[in-house]
Amino acid sequence: MKIIIAGAGAVGTHLAKLLSRERHDITIMDESREKMGDLSSNFDLLTICDSPSSIQALKSAEVSHADLFIGVTPDEAHNMTCCMLASKLGARKTVARVDNYEYTLPENQDFFKTVGIDSLIYPEMLAGREIMSNIKRSWVRQWIEVKKGELIMVGVKLREAAHILGRPLKDLFEPGTPCHIVAVKRDEETIIPHGNDFLELGDIAFFMTTPDYVNYIREITGKDKYPDVKTVFIMGGSSTAVHALWNMPEHIHAKVFEPDPRRCEKLNELLANQRNVLVINGDGSDPNLLLDEGIRKAEAFAALTPGSEQNILACLSARRLGIKKTVAMVENTDYIKVAENLDIGFIINKKTFAASHIYQMMLKADITTMKNLIVANADVAEFQVNEGARITKKPVMDLHLPETVTLGGLVRNGKGQLINGRTQILPGDTVVAFCLENEVKRLERFFH
């Protein structure tokens, strides 16, 4: 596949590195030679130091042969312009990164397609939704719902109180058990577990289950004493924070700490309809201010400023103050492993969300959703099963699936169920698959 990426900033560079591993024909364009760095020498891709909104530059990049054109410069208008030009010059599909929520509304999709923009991606909106989905539950590291919650993936950090440590999984989760473990993060390694594997202290275990048995997982992992989240403190009034708050349920109350007075005024405008939000002009990393505002009565803390280091340190401070649920926005990918080793809680990275969304578009199979398990170096994908797909020909145990993937569950006729070796997958099913990072391509052929 020929892919052209416009913009060698954080998102563009991350995408280029991710996609180059798949042996695609990658070209990255940017006016700044400094941003390009040594991309072409370290990765199998072509760099063009020119404006992606230049017609001549696009022609030089052979945009007429592009299967996918991705506009991810910091400038929303620039992204939209170069995508429209690329489309008119022959690119098959285009994706533009935007910063305007209105553009992402479903009723505007057809309009943008008529002007040559096939898909819009707003990383801050995606990240905000994910943050609030995880803040709502103090005891989980990651929570993913399939088909409006008919299937649920729960990532849990295992501590001393867990009842499932040190025993083979085949003894813990016999056939008929209402959940099973589809992946385990242990130190720097991500494991697709089998029956003889067992869980260790400090593992992050990813469970697949149905809604009726979420509390069962909470109990066996020793998390039943964790409090439900009623109050959250948020450091930083970023766009990501705003989108998180727009998705906050009414029973949760939030205090937002923002040091810039003008940004506080803007936040009060944006959050005017959120009666359960209080904006405070102050530094959310100041422990004295947090104590004065009652942080010891809060159940969750989210650090969502642009500074990765600041966010990590703030979460560590919040943990010392007794907060069990912390969330850190870590935009510098070099710090993600550091943050996880410090055990600061849920980590969010907008670049990873953008990459997963765009990567989904490149796959031939009907993948309706794809998310990255940031700390586990793994992906979760929802496949829609079509008539005649290879996956429907035999029971799961006879399909000879790659060792790097596992099928967690399926939704059939609106009802979720777990998958085991004897399961026969049928056309019309929605299947949830877990793959080690960049391995979803190996599974894709089973759904053709």
How does this model look, in words?
There is one protein chain. This protein has helices spanning 10-20, 33-36, 39-42, 55-60, 76-88, 109-114, 123-135, 169-172, 214-220, 239-246, 261-270, 287-292, 308-320, 336-341, 350-362, 440-444; strands spanning 2-6, 25-30, 46-49, 68-71, 94-97, 119-121, 142-146, 151-157, 179-186, 189-191, 204-209, 231-235, 253-258, 277-281, 300-303, 325-329, 346-348, 367-373, 378-384, 405-412, 415-418, 430-436. With 448 residues, the protein is of the alpha/beta class. The chain is globular and about 65 Å long. 46% of the residues are buried.
Q: What does the largest sheet look like?
A: 6 strands, parallel
Mass-distribution shape: globular
End-to-end C-alpha gap: 18 Å
In spatial order, strands of the major sheet run 3-2-1-4-5-6
Strand % is: 25-35%
Mean pLDDT: 89
Secondary-structure map:
Elements: E1 2-6, H1 10-20, E2 25-30, H2 33-36, H3 39-42, E3 46-49, H4 55-60, E4 68-71, H5 76-88, E5 94-97, H6 109-114, E6 119-121, H7 123-135, E7 142-146, E8 151-157, H8 169-172, E9 179-186, E10 189-191, E11 204-209, H9 214-220, E12 231-235, H10 239-246, E13 253-258, H11 261-270, E14 277-281, H12 287-292, E15 300-303, H13 308-320, E16 325-329, H14 336-341, E17 346-348, H15 350-362, E18 367-373, E19 378-384, E20 405-412, E21 415-418, E22 430-436, H16 440-444
Parallel strand pairs: 1-2, 1-4, 2-3, 4-5, 5-6, 12-13, 12-15, 13-14, 15-16, 16-17
Antiparallel strand pairs: 7-8, 8-11, 9-10, 9-11, 18-19, 19-22, 20-21, 20-22
